[in-house]
Amino acid sequence: MSLQPGSSSGSPLEGAGRKSNKIGRVTEESRKMREENMIRMRKTEPQNILLRKRINISGLNHQLMEALPEIIERVCAEYPDHRLEVNEHFRRLTVGEEVPVDEVLKKGILPHLVGFLSRDDAPQLQREALWIVSNFNFASGTSQQITAIVELGVVPPLVNLLSSTDEDTREEVVFWNIVRDSANNRDLVLNHGALMPILGHLQPQSKLSMLRLASWCLSLLLRGEPPVSLEQIKPALPVLQRLVHMTDEEILTDTCWALAYFSVGETERSQAILDLGICPRLLELLQHPSDTITLTVLLFFGNIVTYNNGPQTRFLIDIQLLRRLRRVLMREYNKSIFREACWTISNIASGHRDQFQVVIDANIIDSVVKVVHNAGFEVKIEAAWVICNITFGGYTDHIRYLAAHGCIEALCELLTYSDLAIVRVCLLALDSILGVGESDRNDRGNSFAKRVEQCGGLDNIEMLQTHDNNEISKTATLILVSYFAEAEMDE
Q1: Which of 123, 179, 472, 489 could covalently link to 467 via disulfide, CB atoms 3.0 to 4.6 Å apart?
Q2: Cα–Cα dist 89/110, whole Å
């Protein structure tokens, strides 16, 4: 294909209400929204990992409240002969799904249990206390409750128990609710040295249950904003390099989440992962039957092209990421997966002009157009950005290619939506396309303008003349005057 510069030649909107021919896609606001979406996607934690180990006995909360005075009296009196018995009794009363954390905190029993966590000389007592404290940490939901538990000094002994010589004790350590509550708590756990013992549990000889639990904990330690410093988490890289080649779905899911969290931020973070040589494996995982694994891998690649639109994006292009994304868009529809795939493609299409060509060469535009026509609105928006980014910065032949593959009709469809930003960019993209059509005008007129009219786009643009948003109404009016004046006169 011979490419000629000047994608917006002949456009009357150049310099008229448009600040730039290329509208920036990736802003600090969109990056922040992306990071929040990543956290929101994972609100539902794999609670069954630990719930499997607990006996669900319902209806015992009232018994717990009735028994607390006696329990507290016996524990606070520090009767050595009764501590284990008390712990065992208390454990049986705290296995329900709705543990009354506030009430227990007010009664003052947890400080004693936290103290028992350091009793290496009494392993059974220590294990019972760990079971109870872990259950309270697991059950607590509010930040206020978690803060109260943290202020009791629970983190240091929990981290120490990660290195216990007793395997069952190591598996019982639970601090996920503390870590996920805030970046400060996450950093507190890391600063007390949790990373290295967790990595120590992620060795090939570890049993499957421990690998699953430790990979989950590792992903949580890498989560949150601001990201953990690269130097602090570098030791995790070779472990992630090994885990990504495992076949267990739970381990793969948590490993891919860890990589997605790791890749947020500065170029050095992404490069550290790319240097591991795991991208071929991640490309394979885009075809994994698990939607969650596919999504998390897409999040990883999306982070690379969002934060580092340069040599790293070029590297992903060279290893045929776009062709893999095309295959993703050909699978059964999944809102989150399709949205993330289109996000990644649109950011590749927001780079240098040679990147527009590789998007076209990947034969992915037809799939993008289908997404615009058939997907939900949030996904349509991401697909539309693929088209718009190429029209804003592409050569005229790039725009002709888009027009030949149904992009005019796709953009016109989106003019009926209430989202002001997408209506505006679709109008500007249509202006670019119509400008090329005007430069190609022959005795039959502007063929692109005729297609806008045939698909109902002209009616949509006419309605936008009276839009409440001044920029939209002005742009619609200028398009009508520039490309459809003859049609108006004929009427």
Answers
A1: 472
A2: 14
Q: Tell me, what CATH number does 86's domain have?
A: 1.25.10.10
Phi then psi dihedrals of residue 239, to 5 deg: -70, -45
- Read off the pLDDT of residues 54-103 as tens digits, 9 standing for 90 and up: 333 334 455 555 555 565 555 555 545 555 555 555 555 455 555 566 76
The set of residues, in sequence order, having a beta carbon less than 8 Å from that of 268 and lying 6+ positions away, is 230
Domain of 169 in residue numbering reads as 44-182
HSE (side-chain half, CA atoms, 13 Å) at 194: 28
Number of domains in the chain: 1
Residue 262 near residue 240 (C-beta atoms within 8 A): yes
Distance CA 333, CA 291 (A): 10
Statement: the pTM of the whole predicted model exceeds 0.70: yes
For the chain, the first-to-last Cα distance in angstroms comes to: 39
* Residues 306-324 pLDDT 10s: 886 689 999 999 999 999 9
CA-angle at 427, arms to 425 and 429, nearest 5°: 70
Report yes or no: 126 and 116 within 8 Å, Cβ to Cβ: yes
Q: Can you tell me which residue has the tokens 């018994």?
A: 63
Where would I find the H helices in 320-376?
A: 321-328, 335-348, 353-361, 365-374
85 contact partners, CB below 8 Å, separation of at least 6? none
What 3-state class would DSSP assign to 442? strand
